[in-house]
Amino acid sequence: MILTVTLNAALDVTYHVPALVPGATHRTGPATERAGGKGVNVARALHALGHDVLVTGFAGGDTGRAIRADLAAAGIREAFAEPSVPARRTVTVVSEEDGSATGFYEPGPRLSIEDWTWFTGRFHDLASRAAVVVLSGSLPPGLPDHAYAQLIGACPAPAILDTSGPPLLEGAAAGPHVVKPNAEELAVTGEPDPLAAAHRLRAHGADAVVASRGADGLVAVTGKGCWRAAVPEPVRGNPTGAGDACVAALAAGLAAGTPWPDLLADAVALSAAAVARPLAGDVDLDTYRRLAPRVSVEELDADPDR
Question: The pTM is what?
Answer without folding.
Answer: 0.91
